[in-house]
Amino acid sequence: MSPTAAPAGPLAYFDHAATVPLRPEVALAMAPFAADRFGNASGSHRLARDARAALEDAREEIASLLGARPAEVVFTGGGTESDNLAVFGVLAACERQRPAIVCSAIEHAAVLAPARAAAGGAGRVRGLDRAELRVAAVDRTGVIDLGALEECLGDDVALVSVMLANNEVGTVQPLAEAAAVVRRRAPGAALHTDAVQAAPFLDVARAAAAADLVTLSAHKLGGPKGTGVLVVREGTPLRPLVFGGGQERERRSGTHDVAGAVGMAAALRESVAHRQEEGARVAALRDRLADGLLSSIPGTVESAPRELVLPGHAHLRFAGVEQEELLVLLDEAGVCASAGSACASGAIEPSHVLLAMGVGGRDARSAVRFTLGATSSELDVQLALTATRAAVERLRH
């Protein structure tokens, strides 16, 4: 079964967890920096000073919305770079020769991959021979087991990473409680949280207040792709991954993407301003979709309790159905959804998140993630309900 041309009919987008369409307000805010306000923010003439002023205004606004100081906001090329900078930057600044890293079992690959690389000695990070990676288990709902986390901690731990909300099943993690365990059992460790998925729906300033490092990505908020932020709280040791011009207080060198920074500030501002009502609206649509699929398709299972997940996530498993085939049929019907992680060859592998939650490999391969957001509508839900019922029936029979 192979993908066909895009359908000519209506299109229902259920992949907001992957990316969000650019908000009109963001495009408007960014437009001048692709035209007459093109200066390099590192220069000294009037065009450069104008760019620098716009950059610092964006930094101040982002900081205020995240409960941080402007000096703590580091602009990056996206969430993946921010996660890598958090992992490698903290390890490089650590004085221990073999520090330990602790991650939850459901972290994004942008955290797990660099952590595994450091544990394997890849790149000999700034003189570090290799680190020790410890993984804290989660329960069957996808929530980190605080007891398992505590067992992983000790005085040798340099970094702990617990995401604020999972990108696949949507479970919100008890970050404040995890932070309390870390401060008690590993007081010298830096606590990092990937808040990329949580930012559209949660108050990151409050929910991530206990974290030393916080990752965000602009395009998950309706901002531009290729722009991210790492909040580095004052006093958190961090060495750069990128060297050169010494930008970002020598934490991330390179010519600033002023338009991206301005766009991220605008996206975060809009998200915060409308978070409460938008969350309620999206949750109602998500409930209608999930309830409709659960009631009309036998053998359908919700991967995590709805009260524990983000408002826009509906992660469902359809017994006896291969997710890859189902996604092809949904795409043909004009419904854009997604599965778990994919390997470099393009073959869909069982989700490491579902496996960590105790879901079997075959069952995990039947999972589809529908994620809703700002552009979701009642018509989208109706189209998804109709298309999914028809596709599952076709694949089963």
Overview of the molecule:
There is one protein chain. Helix 2 packs parallel to helix 9 (258-296). The protein folds into 2 domains: 12-22 and 274-396, Aspartate Aminotransferase, domain 1, CATH 3.90.1150.10; 24-269, Type I PLP-dependent aspartate aminotransferase-like (Major domain) (Aspartate Aminotransferase, domain 2, 3-Layer(aba) Sandwich). It has helices at 24-30, 46-66, 79-93, 109-119, 146-152, 175-185, 204-207, 247-250, 258-296, 323-332, 352-356, 361-364, 378-396; strands spanning 12-13, 73-76, 100-104, 132-136, 157-161, 190-194, 213-217, 228-232, 300-302, 313-318, 335-336, 367-371. The chain is of the alpha/beta class and 397 residues long. The mean pLDDT is 94. The strands form 3 sheets. A 7-stranded mixed beta sheet has the order 2-8-7-6-5-3-4, sandwiched between helices. A 3-stranded antiparallel beta sheet has the order 9-10-12. A two-stranded parallel ribbon has the order 1-11. The protein contains 13 helices and 12 strands. Helix 7 links the parallel strand 6 (190-194) and strand 7 (213-217). Helices cover 40% and strands 13% of the residues.
Please specify the SSE layout and strand pairing.
Elements: E1 12-13, H1 24-30, H2 46-66, E2 73-76, H3 79-93, E3 100-104, H4 109-119, E4 132-136, H5 146-152, E5 157-161, H6 175-185, E6 190-194, H7 204-207, E7 213-217, E8 228-232, H8 247-250, H9 258-296, E9 300-302, E10 313-318, H10 323-332, E11 335-336, H11 352-356, H12 361-364, E12 367-371, H13 378-396
Parallel strand pairs: 1-11, 3-4, 3-5, 5-6, 6-7
Antiparallel strand pairs: 2-8, 7-8, 9-10, 10-12
Helix pairs in contact: 1-9, 2-9, 3-4, 9-13, 10-13
